[in-house]
Amino acid sequence: MQLDWTTLLLQIVNFLILVWILKRFLYQPVLDIIHRRQQGIEQTLAKASDAEERAAQLERDYQARLADWDKERKRAHAKLLEELAAERNQRSKQLEQTLAEQRERDASLEQRRRDELQRQLETAALGQAGRFVGRLLERLSGPELDERLVATVIEDLGQLPDEQRRELAAAAAQPNATLRIETARPLNQATRDLLLDSLRGVLGKLPSIEDKLTPELVAGVRIALGPWLLAANLQDELSCFRNGAYRAD
User: Fold this and answer.
1) FRET pair for 213, CA 20 to 30 Å: which of 72, 75, 175, 182?
2) Cα dihedral sign for 102, 104, 105, 110?
3) CA angle 82-87-92, nearest 5°?
4) Where on the phi/psi map is residue 187: left (φ > 0), alpha (ψ -120 to 50), or beta?
5) How confident is the model at residue 240 (pLDDT cuts 50, 70, 90)?
6) How many CB atoms lie within 10 A of CB 126?
7) How many angstroms separate the CA atoms of 92 and 84, rounded?
8) Strand 246-247's sheet: what is its strand order?
9) Is the pLDDT assigned to residue 238 strictly greater than 70?
10) End-to-end Cα, the chain, rounded Å
11) Under DSSP, is residue 82 helix (H, G, I), strand (E, B) or coil?
């Protein structure tokens, strides 16, 4: 069998032409398509990677924000607890102060109630004692008791303060001044003279004198001069000049 070099050469040329045609019109476009597909895939992968990175960053930001929110929540909770504790402490102090003030008011009211009760008891006791003494002295009243009460008036007239002496003297010096002497029964002349002498020593000059019998006095004497009243009698509860002379008005 002989090799036909012409045919072989033609076949080689045909093969090369076929290869060029395949490369030119088939293989190269396929390569281009594959290249474009690869670029598209790489871009997609890059975008996916970027998206994944952004998602991871968002996740990190979200976690950081959650951590910040948790810290802020804890700080707010701690601050709220502090404010509540301060408010409770303040309310507790206010309550203690209110209770202390209330206890003080209650104690004050109780003390006033006790003082008022004590005063009422003392007043009642004094009233009973006064009535007892009044009844007793009323039974013992008579000229001798009148003389003793007048002697008490005379003694207290000698002990009057200077200011009262001046005011009594000024009242006696008034025009139409009247010295009214009330007694439960007529005084004997000696006792009356002693009383007038004592009054003259205080007043300097006696004004007109008005004698008046007042049985309601039971015993003793009541002397009125203008706005002044001097009393030592059972009806006036035996004051016997406890406060010296006093103004009737």
Assistant:
1) 175
2) positive
3) 125
4) beta
5) very low
6) 11
7) 12
8) 208-213, 178-183, 220-225, 228-233, 246-247
9) no
10) 179
11) helix
Neighbouring residues of 130: CB distance < 8 A, sequence distance ≥ 6: 237
**Residues 6+ positions from 177 with CB-CB distance below 8 Å:** 171, 207, 208, 225, 226
Contacts of 168 (CB under 8 A, 6+ apart): 160, 202, 203, 225, 228, 245
Give pLDDT, residue 73: 86
Sole residue written with tokens 């990677």? 49
Q: Identify residue 236 by its one-letter amino acid code.
A: D
Q: Which of 83-92, 154-163, 190-199, 214-223 shows the lowest mean pLDDT across its residues?
A: 214-223
Q: Minimal CA–CA distance to 165: which of 239, 225, 242, 249?
A: 225
Which pTM does this prediction carry? 0.43
Ramachandran angles phi, psi of 167, nearest 5°: -70, -40
Neighbouring CB atoms inside 10 A of 148's CB total 13
Give me the amino acid identity at 143.
P
Strand partners, 181: 211, 223
User: Alpha carbon of 183 to those of 83, 145, 229, 231, 232: distances in Å?
Assistant: 83, 12, 14, 10, 10
